Hints:
Blueprint: E1 3-5, H1 15-19, E2 25-27, E3 34-36, E4 61-63
Antiparallel strand pairs: 1-4, 2-3
Amino acid sequence: MAFTINPDACVMCDSCRSACPRNAIKAHETEKTYVIDANLCNDCSNMSAVRCVPQCPSEAIVKT
Length: 64
């Protein structure tokens, strides 16, 4: 399982980025959206639940 951020839905509110325990969510270099670094994200597998998804008010984070 992996997660991505839908750039059309992302409002860059910063809620997901600050919730990520692995600092895997960063601002895109040229677009007004956040992106999830697949090399850093482990889907919160070492935690009881994914941290970023429930924090997103625009439901921009989706499983892929």
